[in-house]
Amino acid sequence: MDSNNTQNPTLKRQLNPIHVWAIAFGCIIGWGSFINPGKKFLPNSGVAGTAIAMALGALVMMIIAFSYAYMVPKYPKAGGEFTFTKMCFGKTTAYICGWFLVAAYLTNVPMNSTAIGLIVDGLDGTADILKFGFHYQIAGFDVWMGEMLLAFAVLILFGVLNILGVKKAGFVQLVLAGLLAVSVITLTVSALISSQASWDNIPPIWGFDKSAAIEAASKGAYTNVDEFAHGGTMGIMSAILATFAIAPWAFVGFDTIPQAAEEFKFSYKKVSIIMAVAILFGCFVYVANNTIAAAAVEKWPDLIVESSSTPWLLLEAAKRLLGVPGMVLIGVAVSSAVLSGIMGFYLASSRLMYSMSRDGYLPKMFGRIDARHGTPRNAMIFCIIISLSGPVLGREALGWFVDMSAIGASIGYFFTCASTLVTMKRFKDGNAGLKVMAVTGVIFSLGFAVLQLVPIPGLEAVHFGKESYIMLLVWIAIGAAFYFVQRKKMNAS
């Protein structure tokens, strides 16, 4: 008998609440929370701006999460936002939502994979053991065969683990999420009690104009970061918005929970609590990592301005706080974050594609369930193949993947909140508080999309770069091709 076909192929109910929390938390916290203090957060927003932006982002995500918690029991099927949108706005709109959600989830897998080589190089310190074989440059960054091979191996291994069963994947995810949480808490406690960390190191608290400072340094005119520090009402607002605008990317992961709804073996009433705890844990890790990186590294702005590449400030902070044990701690934390992100987003992406295929929105092959393991094997293989692009594009593609994930998540949030309003009207639900939160979610989701896509003077750090627009157009073109091929089957379903 073909292992891909049964008379009634279904996903297996094997996930406990703790597994689902681990999936959500592991997806929220990936490589970006460890490298972005030096790449985005500290230069764009500083410690204060990032903390405020992340707290506001967590609040907005909590508001949006109530819409998810309301919709999951109404439509408890794999597909999450795609399923909600189909039931409330029709098939074409659902396809648009689903395709952008695939981008939100799947781009996080290669994004995390690009970090694997940097983890090894950063912890190794001197040998550059992965820099062998052929290499080339993309956006000024060297891509080496050795780094690609290691990333390929990890992507394939964790893809296979997902194919072998959701229970195995859930257990591995729980171990990784636990290691991540314990490592970050340990580093935070170390920073609080160590004399190496000082509040004097934290300014400029609102960040600085990184591009202007680097240009001045290239001309020999850079002397002090205070000349470029963000200040004044507009400067502070810009600093906060620069990080707040990517909140959909920063917290994307809590919304992966509905993707596995058919695999829950617990009450759907627990969904809101699981989401809330995952979001709060995620907010803590972002703020803690960013604050520690600044507090423990003296003159961190100079490292950013003078470095030829993005400095790994958090690793440097851990070394100054704890020495070699600090490096090991960061190694464990970031490895757990990367691997749990790969594992969780693989699961979410494959379940979403399975759901879209089952309803005729994607080719039938993606909707086949492996009879032995109860997983959508073909959808998972497709996710693995697409994810192998990350190591090929190199580490500078991180920002492009962030942008793609952010816009995809914003679209998913918008349709979930809008679907909540439609469903409440359909079921004559008079919950005024939920209605207010759903409307608020719609407004913020649209706001996030506008900030990401529309160039706004003074907020250049927020919106898409050229490469991100190109990736977005390519993704839209691929989605359009699938749509026109599958349109008859969609209408017949």
Distance between the termini: 27 Å
In total, the number of domains comes to 1
Radius of gyration: 22 Å
Q: Architecture, according to CATH?
A: Up-down Bundle
Remind me, CATH topology? Amino acid/polyamine transporter I
Adjacency order of strands in the biggest sheet: 1-2
Count of DSSP-assigned helices = 20
The topology string of helices and strands comes to: HHHHHHEEHHHHHHHHHHHHHH
How many DSSP E strands?
Answer: 2
Name of the CATH homologous superfamily:
Amino acid/polyamine transporter I
Overall pLDDT, averaged? Answer: 87
CATH class: Mainly Alpha
Which percent range describes the beta-strand content? under 5%
Q: What do these coordinates show?
A:
By secondary structure, the protein is mainly α. The protein has a single domain (17-492), classed as Amino acid/polyamine transporter I. It contains 20 helices and two strands. It has a two-stranded antiparallel sheet with strand order 1-2. A hairpin with a 2-residue loop joins strand 1 (135-138) and strand 2 (141-144). Helix 4 crosses helix 20 (466-492) and helix 7 runs antiparallel to helix 16 (377-387). The radius of gyration is 22 Å and the shape is globular. It starts with 16 loop residues before the first helix and ends with a helix. Residues 1-8 have low confidence and may be disordered.
